Amino acid sequence: MPSLSITMQYPVAGGPGVELTSMGQFSRHADFVNAWQQPELSRLVDYCLNALRVCGSR
């Protein structure tokens, strides 16, 4: 299963009690938007991922 991981660092003013609005120092929210044409994505998933082929990038 493909996954995305986002790691961000940014300066903060404050002390050890600083938290993000999502609670805690190590949580955040991110969105993923799929912009692939669905037939091509389905073909690549079947041909590459499901068949365990290394297809490269385009």
Structural commentary:
The chain is built from one helix and no strands. With 58 residues, it is mainly alpha-helical. The mean pLDDT is 79. 21% of the residues lie in helices and 0% in strands. The protein is elongated and about 50 Å long. The two termini are 19 Å apart. It has one helix at 38-49.
List the helices and strands and how they pair.
Elements (H helix, E strand, L loop, with lengths): L37 H12 L9
Mean pLDDT: 79
Strand content: under 5%
Shape: elongated
Cα Rg? 18 Å
| Main beta-sheet annotation | none
Series of H and E elements: H
Q: Span between N and C termini?
A: 19 Å
How many E strands? 0
Spans of at least 5 consecutive residues with low confidence = none
Number of helices: 1
Helix content: 10-25%
Query: Which structural class fits the helix and strand makeup?
Result: mainly alpha
Task: Please sum up the structure shown.
It is built from 1 helix and no strands. With 58 residues, the chain is mostly helical.
Q: Tags for this entry?
A:
single chain; 58 residues; mainly alpha; elongated
